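Ex. 9. Protein: NADH-quinone oxidoreductase subunit F.
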Amino acid sequence: MTLTSFGPANRIKRSAETHPLTWRLRDDGEAVWLDEYQAKNGYAAARKAFADMAQDDIVQTVKDSGLKGRGGAGFPTGVKWGLMPKDESINIRYLLCNADEMEPNTWKDRMLMEQLPHLLIEGMLISARALKTYRGYIFLRGEYTTAAKHLNRAVEEAKAAGLLGKNILGSGFDFELFVHTGAGRYICGEETALINSLEGRRANPRSKPPFPAAVGVWGKPTCVNNVETLCNVPAIIADGVDWYKSLARVGSEDMGTKLMGFSGKVKNPGLWELPFGVTARELFEDYAGGMRDGYKLKAWQPGGAGTGFLLPEHLDAQMYAGGIAKVGTRMGTGLAMAVDDSVNMVSLLRNMEQFFARESCGFCTPCRDGLPWSVKLLMAIENGQGQPGDIETLLGLVGFLGPGKTFCAHAPGAVEPLGSAIKYFRHEFEAGIAPVSAAVPPLARPIVVGA
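Predicted C-alpha cells for NADH-quinone oxidoreductase subunit F:
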C-alpha cells in the first residue's frame, strides 16, 4: 500500500513542517527502518520527552494540542490520558494500541505500520513515559501479516538500540512492547472488547463504568489509543502546540492533519495526509481525480461503512468532525467511498448489513436479532419480494438500534448507513416491494412495536 497523489498533490512536497505523519515515507513504498528513521530525525522527540519534560508536562502538551482520537470516535487524547490514576503506588499500568483496523474501506493504519513502524513505536514510547505504563501491546488485525512482520522487526531494532526494554535512554524508565495479532473480529475495534480478547476471553464489550483507565487489562489501569493517534505524538512533542494547531484549515475545530482517502470508481483511489478542514470536494476532485469516465457520483460515505451516505451536493462540507456533522453524519475514519450510478442501494445495504450482522458479538438483543432481521428484509426487497410495511420496519430498526439503545456502538454504526440510504434513495427500496396482491398476510410478517 503506497501513498498516492494526484493533481495538486503532485505539486506539494511532503515536509516535516506540513506533513508530520508522512514526510519520512520512501517513494518506493518500502519500510523505513531504524537507521533511516533516525537519520530523518526519528526518536528525537522521544529523547526530548525523556531528557527535558516531566511526565505530566507531556500529558498537558498533548491535551493543549487538541489531538483527538483518529480511530473514528474522536475523543480528546489528552483528556483520555488525564483519566489515568495519579497514584504513584499503582506500578502496573498498560498502554494498548488499537491496530484492529477492520472498518470496511479503511486502510490508513496499515500504511503507517507497514511503512513507518518506528513512528508508531516512538509514539508509544513517549505515551508510555507520560502515562507511567511499563508494558505496551499493539493489538493488530490478524490479516495484516506484513504489518506484523515489520512491527516485530522494528521492535527488535528498538530494543537493540536501547529504545525499548530496561533503563531507556538512561532514564531508569522501563517499557516492554509486544505485537499481538487478533483472531479477526470487527468488534475488537471497541476498546473493551479488545481488552477482553487480549486477555484470552470472548471479544464482548464490557460495561462502563468502570472505564479502562481505572480497570483495564487484567484489572489494571489501561489506556487504549489508535495507531494514527499515537503516530501524531512525536511531532507534537518535537515541534510544539502552536505549530500543530496551525496545520488545520481555518474553520476546523479539529487540529493537525489527518490521513484521508477515497475509494470506489474514482480515477485515482488513494490515501493522503491533509489538513483538517479541507473540503470533501478537494479530496474527491483534486486528489482522487473525480469519477472514472463513464461513471457519475451517486453518493458517498465520509469515513467507513459505519457512516451515513451523503449526496454530491454535500461535497463542499469541510472534512472535520463538526463539518461533516453539519451535513448529517460522522467523520469516522476519514476514508471516503464513492458510490457510482451503476450501484443499486438496496444491494449495497444488504451487503453492508450482512457484514455488520456477522460481526456482532451477540451480547445484546437489539444487535443480535435486529441486524439479521434487517438483512432478511433487505434480501426480500432486493429480490422484488418485499412486502408493504417493510421499509417502515427497517426504519423502526434504525431507531431501535440507534445510539443509547444497545450495549456498545456497533449497532448504531451499522444502521446509520441504512437510515441515510432510505432517506435519500427511498424510491429504490420501494421498487422492491411486491404488488399488494402478492403480499403475505399481515400475521405472517414480523411485527415491530412502535415502528
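Check your answer against this statement. The radius of gyration is 23 Å.
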